[in-house]
Specification:
single chain, 446 residues, alpha+beta, 8 helices, globular
Length: 446
């Protein structure tokens, strides 16, 4: 049986977003494109010589003016893309027992509970997807073609595991008709039988028809496709032209200092490599590669110089400490430019230091007899990293009638592997596995 996330809402209330991958270049197989999240220090007094008579202010002005034509307002299209998400978490959880009138909740119980929680985990998901983008339609417009997951559930931190162990101690009181209330500081939640899914209920659920099981598979596949759609949106919001994104190098260009640091041949055109640094109130530095022909940004890298998000309230603290990326844009079939390959990495930490009180009462009536009370404190610390890697494989414009009839087909789910298998992708493999994926092994193989 399993609780319905009551513990999460009471003492955590924060999502885990630093350990993990290093800043090492990744080369896309078959294209020669290289993604590199490191940004080498460059002195802003360097001078680049060329025979072109354009200053950096004019160059940025032309690139900003061309932005709408090149990246915004493009017609709907169908795309096929590959995307990978790798998550790394390092955490430590301790429980301090303050008072307990229930012998089931003693020091040994909380010590064993803390030791049962994994301290490190990494999860990797990657897949190939079809999607419709650029239209006015909302909702799920993505379907999975094929995908794989590397996850060791025995090493993955899951708040439900803590809930389950606490629940085992509560079951006897629930069977006797008692009810429980959990308080965390000023917050509380009453727990009764409806807040649990008992084994008897699961037994009933197990007798499902083939049609019901098929519908559940479709629902799971749709949920996994929605994950990939969310990852792609996450990457889109880091684009330099995103209206809803974090990077404001064009929107608030007056806050940045720009300098042309290189002039080179790239993607069959001469490009200016422009370094940007914060001048007043900005949070990022990086580079923009602007081509000479139509002033499109064909490549850009960014790195935050200070935390971009933080939260602290009632014993919960959360901070996004790292936000960096490397995006490469190439021409599409509509006369504009489109993200071809990209990498985005987010780093964050979360701290939870909150008291919890578990009370058992005879009935729900106000003033009813209190049978037991357990007071303890939760101290939770985690550092985490999310890394997304994207590769556009092909795209084609869609006519209005095609757009209205396009529907996702949710038949494919993640294939769970016990270790990374290069043959899974065969000759379609373009993104090599990272070191953590190559080293991944399930601790228990069924």
């Amino acid at each position: 049986m399993q609780m319905k996330n009551w513990l999460t809402s009471l003492f955590l209330g924060a999502a885990l977003l630093v350990w993990g991958q290093k800043n090492e270049p990744v080369t896309i197989l078959g294209t020669g494109d290289t993604l590199d999240l490191s940004i080498a220090p460059i002195s802003l007094n360097e001078v680049v010589l060329s025979n072109k008579k354009i200053g950096v202010d004019e160059l940025i002005s032309k690139a900003r003016a061309a932005m709408k034509k090149h990246y915004l307002g493009q017609q709907p299209q169908e795309i096929q893309y590959f995307i990978r998400r790798s998550d790394y978490v390092k955490q430590n959880t301790n429980f301090t027992l303050k008072k307990s009138t229930d012998p089931a909740f003693d020091q040994t119980f909380f010590k064993n509970l803390a030791q049962s929680i994994p301290t490190r985990s990494d999860v990797h998901k990657e897949g190939m997807f079809h999607a419709v983008i650029g239209g006015t339609s909302t909702g799920l417009q993505t379907e999975m073609i094929k995908g794989m997951i590397l996850e060791d559930e025995d090493k993955t931190f899951d708040i439900a595991n803590i809930e389950e162990q606490l629940e085992k101690k509560i079951t006897k009181g629930l069977d006797a008709g008692n009810f429980f209330k959990v308080k965390s500081g000023v917050f509380g939640k009453k727990l009764k039988e409806d807040d649990f899914e008992f084994s008897s209920k699961k037994a009933k659920d197990s007798a499902k028809t083939p049609e019901q099981l098929a519908q559940e598979r479709i629902k799971r596949a749709a949920g996994q496709a929605m994950q990939a759609q969310g990852w792609r949106k996450e990457m889109e919001e880091a684009a330099f032209f995103s209206e809803d994104g974090q990077i404001d190098v064009f929107e608030n260009y007056k806050k940045y200092r720009f300098q042309i640091i290189d002039y080179r041949w790239y993607q069959n055109d001469w490009v200016y490599v422009v370094r940007f640094e914060p001048k007043s109130g900005a949070s990022y530095n990086g580079t923009l590669w602007i081509n000479e022909t139509d002033y499109a940004v064909v490549q850009y890298k960014f790195n935050n110089l200070k935390p971009i998000k933080s939260f602290a309230l009632l014993g919960i603290a959360y901070k996004v400490t790292g936000y960096k990326g490397h995006y490469i844009y190439k021409p599409n079939t509509q006369g504009g430019y489109q993200l071809h390959v990209g990498m985005l990495r987010k780093e964050a930490w979360v701290r939870v230091d909150r008291p919890l009180t578990l009370m058992e009462r005879k009935s729900r009536t106000i003033g009813s007899k209190k049978l037991n009370e357990v007071d303890f404190k939760v101290n939770f610390k985690a550092e985490a990293q999310e890394e997304y890697t994207y590769l556009l494989q092909n795209q084609k414009p869609l006519k209005s009638e095609e757009l209205s009839t396009w529907k996702p087909n949710h038949q494919k789910e993640w294939t769970k592997l016990s270790s990374y298998d290069k043959s899974f992708w065969g000759n379609t493999l373009q993104l090599p596995p990272n070191e953590s994926m190559e080293a991944f092994k399930l601790s228990k193989v069924n």
